[in-house]
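Sequence in, structure out.
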Amino acid sequence: MKLHVLNLGELMVNCYVVETAPGRCVIIDLGGNPDVLMRFLDAHKLRLRKILLTHGHFDHIGGVEAVRKLTGAEVYIHEADAKMLSSAEYSLAAGMSFHPFEAITDFTAVTGDSWINDGDLSFRVFHTPGHSEGSVCYICDDVIFSGDTLFRDSIGRSDFPGSNSIDMNNSLHALNLLQGDYKVLPGHGPSTALSRERRTNPFMINLR
């Protein structure tokens, strides 16, 4: 899998550009700076086909509508977070963002344990509620794009409206039970490995 990471938006979200076939790609999360992303795509001669959202908080969706309009890319989000795409309140933009909220007007709502295919790659939608009702991880080959569910040595907050600490614990347990090892690419901060988080992450150590 060939991928690139750009830190975009107010909270420097990891925007992952995944090449799915020669000349085409999908991205995972886009917190802002659509101009930076478009210049990157042009420089690398990549056509954006899909935008996969791990959840609907403003810092992960801030640049999506502008890029969707420019590229015609399809947008995917879990059905439980779909309401965030049209609401400054539900997306937390109203109380936390310094930029005007731009609703995403065309998207596909998905459910957990479904698959999104593009080019030569398939992305499993793994529902991991807790940080938000519709938080998901996308699993592709041996990589987990974990959004704000799992970070290196930490996890996402569960004190926002729509967050739930019990759901978060259950989601971490589900990740812990995945067979084998995966590279974990979170929504913020450095990458890690699932095996490492099983051993050292204080929120996962006692889950087995």
